[in-house]
Amino acid sequence: MRKIINLSNKPYFLSSAAVGGYEERRGPLGESFDLCDDSDLFGMESWEAAESEMGRISLNIALKKAALAESSLDVLLAGDLENQCVASSGGLYTFGIPYVGLYSACSTCTEALLLLSVLLSSGELSLGATVTTSHNSAAERQFRTPVEYGAQRAPSAQWTATAAGSFILSKNKTAGKNVFVNNVMLGKIVDGLTKDGANMGAAMARAAFDSVYTYLSLAGKPLSDYDRIITGDLGAVGSDILCELFTKEIPGAEHIHTDCGKLLYSFEKKNLHSGASGCGCSASVLAAHFLPMLESGRLKNILFLSTGALMNPQSVLQGNSILGIAPVINICSDAE
Amino acid sequence: MRKIINLSNKPYFLSSAAVGGYEERRGPLGESFDLCDDSDLFGMESWEAAESEMGRISLNIALKKAALAESSLDVLLAGDLENQCVASSGGLYTFGIPYVGLYSACSTCTEALLLLSVLLSSGELSLGATVTTSHNSAAERQFRTPVEYGAQRAPSAQWTATAAGSFILSKNKTAGKNVFVNNVMLGKIVDGLTKDGANMGAAMARAAFDSVYTYLSLAGKPLSDYDRIITGDLGAVGSDILCELFTKEIPGAEHIHTDCGKLLYSFEKKNLHSGASGCGCSASVLAAHFLPMLESGRLKNILFLSTGALMNPQSVLQGNSILGIAPVINICSDAE
Question: What ipTM does this complex have?
Answer without folding.
Answer: 0.97
